[in-house]
Amino acid sequence: CYFRNPCNVSFFIEKDAFLSLKNLKLLSLKANNITYVPTTLPSTLTELYLYNNAIAKIQKEDFNNLHQLQLLDLSGNCPRCYNVPFPCTPCENNSPLQIHPSAFDGLTELQVLRLHSNSLQHVP
To answer: By the 8 A CB rule, do 38 and 57 touch?
Structure first.
């Protein structure tokens, strides 16, 4: 157990948790051990921070409705854990973050994409 998320407990997000937030621009879900990109995110988002979680796979439809998104931070999911100065949990079998080749296709306003510390083997 440590400061980010006590005892590595996964944080569950209800499917419609953010639907009523019609003016939401920035959403930070960093360091919550979530294992997937939440569904039905508000289409008004311009910044989405999902870093330092336990997301192993980015699906084709994960960002479909986020046409205004300008910044997406997915860093620190499936990290390489050698020589790190903090507690580190790699993905199962030390596999890299898997990103569907079309996952970012609809993000026409995207200006910043952060993918560091993900043990990527290729960028789609």
So the answer is: no
